[in-house]
Write a structure and sequence with these properties.
Elements (H helix, E strand, L loop, with lengths): L14 H10 L2 H7 L6 H9 L4 H9 L15 H12 L1 H5 L4 H11 L3 H7 L13 H20 L4 H8 L13 H20 L5
Helix pairs in contact: 1-4, 5-8, 5-9, 5-11, 7-9, 9-11
Length: 202
């Protein structure tokens, strides 16, 4: 396991910023940087240790600073991707009217994404109708991650990496297609507005 430097030096982030960033790192990403044999429970203990946070941040991001506003208004990257994917597949979501099928979709992803996608059907990309709710759930997540990756490609590399580190290695966000890149700006303009509305007020 790489030696983790003591927390007393290089990272200039405020404690709350640093804690939020380190806690957001996907366990599989952290294991790749530390030791693949570490258990999820051990990784969680490291992430929750205030003494280790500075070292963990520098281990995964080098000397990059994590101070300042978090990308996506601090919301989970997967949630942002699901909002994007629900727009991408809004035509299929509009047809998801069976109580049983809608229930399967909601069980897989949550209740907020189907109505959100339908509200923004004018931005839908996919014209192929997916009637199976499990397949549709998977498509929403994968195309949403691709769209997220397309939007991240427009950000500075440091911000892009901060978001990717919260997702498992090899996700669709890492290599977005040309179609995802082309649609990302319009879709994420809507997604970011939604995320901003849901930021807790002080």
């Amino acid at each position: 396991m790489p030696a983790l430097l003591d927390s007393a030096s290089h990272c200039e982030a405020a404690p709350a910023d640093l804690a939020a960033f380190v806690s957001s790192i996907h366990p599989a990403r952290l294991a790749l940087s530390l030791d693949a044999a570490l258990s999820v429970a051990t990784l969680a203990r490291l992430q929750n240790s205030s003494r280790m946070r500075d070292g963990l941040a520098r281990l995964v991001l080098g000397d990059a600073d994590v101070a300042g506003p978090a990308p996506l208004f601090g919301q989970p990257a997967r949630r942002a991707a699901l909002f994007a994917g629900s727009i991408w597949h809004a035509r299929s979501l509009l047809k998801l009217i069976s109580g049983q099928d809608l229930g399967v979709f909601v069980d897989k992803l949550g209740a907020e994404f189907q109505p959100f996608g339908v509200r923004h059907i004018g931005l839908a990309v996919s014209t192929a109708l997916i009637v199976d709710p499990e397949q549709l759930s998977e498509a929403v997540e994968q195309d949403g991650l691709g769209c997220l990756g397309g939007w991240l490609a427009t950000l500075p590399e440091r911000e892009r990496q901060r978001v990717l580190l919260s997702l498992p290695p090899g996700s669709a966000a890492e290599q977005p297609s040309a179609a995802h890149r082309a649609a990302a700006d319009a879709i994420f303009a809507v997604v970011l507005t939604q995320l901003a509305l849901q930021v807790p007020q002080p």
